[in-house]
Amino acid sequence: MYKIFKYVIRDILRNRIMLAYTALLLLASGSIFSLEDTSAKAILSVLNIVLLIVPLVSIVFATIYVYNSNEFIELLLSQPIQRKKIWLSIFYGLSLSLGLAFLVGIGIPVLLFERSLTGLLLVACGALLSVIFAAIAMLAVVFTRDKAKGIGTAVLMWLYFTILFDGLVLFGLFQLSDYPIEKAMIVVSSLNPIDLSRILILLKLDISALMGYTGAIFQDFFGTATGMTLSFVALMLWILIPVGISLHKFSKKDL
Amino acid sequence: MRYLLMILIIFSATQLQAKSLHVGKQEAYKTIHQALQVVADSDSILIHAGLYQEGNLIIDKSISLIGIDNPILDGQYKYEVISIKANYVTVEGITIQHSGVSSIIDYAGIKLYECNNVRIEKNIIEDAFFGIYVQYGTKCIIRNNHLRAHKKTEQESGNGIHCWKSDSLQITGNQIQGHRDGIYFEFVTNSIIWRNISSKNLRYGLHFMFSNHDTYVTNVFENNGAGVAVMFSNHVHMYNNYFRENWGDASYGILLKEISDSEIEGNRFEQNTSGIYIEGASRIQMNRNLFKGNGWALKIQASCMEIQLHNNDFIGNTFDVGTNGSLVLNNFNNNYWDKYEGYDLNKDRQGDVPYRPVSMYAGIIEKIPVAMILFRSLITTLMDKSEKLIPSITPEQLKDDHPHIKPVVS
User: Fold this and answer.
1) Do the domain assignments include residue B333?
2) Is residue B272 part of a domain?
3) Within a domain: B245
4) What domain count does chain B have?
5) Which of A196, B357, B386, B398 minimizes the number of CB atoms within 10 Å of its CB?
6) Which member of A174, A199, A210 has the closest CB to residue B373?
7) Which residues contact B85 (CB under 8 A, 6 or more apart)?
8) Which domain CATH number covers B172?
9) DSSP assignments along A64-127, one per residue
10) How many CB pairs under 8 A join A and B?
């Protein structure tokens, strides 16, 4: 297993797109931190990258990578290796390299310019999002054999998590505005890893005062150690469940 | 030479009339009480450095109480330190500390009871319940005092400068910190508040109600629990004040409620949760103010009318204007908005298309506060962009027809 993992890592880290992605992140975050006058504003701008670009690149790259290594997977399957080990080592390799690219691209500038709890949280959430979207990509791949369809599904997933989900939430809010739904919104927000990360980070910034009563209720939950732990558990579940399902599917799949 | 001699003689004659009583360990009078018993109108009591714990001092003659090298008058947390019940009294250069605290009696460092022409100057008032309390005062001057309190809750804390049913006061150059309200006015008319710094107070930096014809110039209100509240008054003039860092859930740069016929000009609002919150106000001129880096620059409720906003700068605010209805009886014109994306073809420095300062998302939040969980998500940004092109939800009339292309004030 370690051998496959090592091979995947070496393969991805040599990939030009990966290098370009790292360089892009480094350039973007570095210039944001040196241009913005206050660190809170810089964090907000970096937050947009973390919530939009990072998931998109993670999901698309992971999908394409798994499709491209189809022949490699088939070759491995002819060897006496467990399917589970093959699938997991590809996932580990993908998430480690995507995480590494993120940590170099965003983590280093953030830790250089903004060494606060907020900065740390931003880096942690971004790294987790990289892994989560790699996991979702694995799920998209395992369900479709066609490469074009698979990539389409992956992009659709990204679209769902960044825009459509929020649109549905907004629609629901309009319908249920007469009810006290603040607490229910905490649960709803955990159904989308991007929303959850956004709220976690915004509450740490002092703009949380803008969020009024809703912000206060969210602060009450996410501000505590239990709330923080629970939300990280939710993010972990966003990794474990897609990987688990895809693993189950892959072990039984007729290739 | 003859005139000079005459002036000298007259001057020395008045000097002879008005005695100076020295109080101190090595002086003629050991306690202030002894001096107060023999003092006559227009005399001075000079208090030398030292700690005086004499309970309550009642001044009922027109005298000057002057501290030399900062004598400390201590109220031992039990007494009101100085009570002034005469006209033409001066209190200067004294440190007053530890006044009594009570929930029934308004103990103060210095309290004025129905008097006029009193001057309170250059005193330091430390850890008092109420700092300076003016009750039925006229033509009194409160100048260059430092007031500091360290209480934690609003209940055990009084106001810094508290004025009630007074007229023609001058409150100038004071620094007030850590009280409940920095400056509090109730039924105070024709007064001026100038060059004060009111910061870190538990509730409001400045709080006034039913106080008409007052002017506020060049004050700094900073980092107060809830900013500044102005209610039920008319003919209020606020010029060149600085409202900053009033940050919190219920915190405002200024909260205007039921205000009419007033002018708010040349003020700066920076880093407040809401720069100005207006409710039920009418006929207010707001010109040449700067709103910078606030959460909401302006929250203007539909209950306001004839509010004129001209030549103001709105820079770097999260939301420029928030409102709660579609009725707009106010006028926005010639302001600078940093979010304006229009153009100026004829180069008259005014945009050719109107700017709509209420974003769609701000409108949604006003209706459904929970929608705040979508703050800074992609969908709200997209919605705002499309709403700017084709307005449908935001109030049609709330717009600036001739926005400035460049900042007006800054």
Assistant:
1) no
2) no
3) no
4) 1
5) B386
6) A199
7) B58, B59, B60, B113, B114, B115
8) 2.160.20.10
9) HHHHHTHHHHHHHHTSS--HHHHHHHHHHHHHHHHHHHHIIIIIHHHHHH--SHHHHHHHHHHH
10) 73
Kindly report the nearest CA distance between residue A190 and chain B, in angstroms. 12
DSSP B138: B
Residue ranges of B 15-44 with Cβ closer than 8 A to chain A: none
Per cent of chain A over pLDDT 90 is: 61
Tell me the C-alpha distance between B79 and A172, whole Å.
Answer: 60
Task: Give the domain range for residue B77.
Answer: 19-225
List CB contacts (< 8 A) between A162 and chain B.
378
Picking from B140, B96, B92, the residue whose alpha carbon sits closest to that of residue B118 is B140
A209, B382: Cβ pair inside 8 Å? no
Instruction: Establish if B244 belongs to a structural domain.
Output: no
- Residue A105 identity (one-letter amino acid): G
Note the residue count of chain B.
410
For B:218-257, CB contacts with A below 8 A are 247-249, 251
Please give the Cα distance from B9 to B7 (Å, whole number).
Answer: 5
Q: What is the pTM of this model?
A: 0.83
Residue of A nearest to B370 (CA): A214
Nearest CA in chain A to B251: A209
Band (A208; pLDDT cuts 50, 70, 90) = low
Q: Give chain B positions within 8 Å (CB) of A214.
A: 369-370, 372-373
Which site among A41, A160, A166 would you substitute to test the B interface, given the most B Cβ atoms closer than 10 Å to its Cβ?
A: A166
Report chain A's mean pLDDT, rounded to a whole number: 90
Q: Which residues of chain B register pLDDT less than 50?
A: none
Better pLDDT: A155 or A223: A155
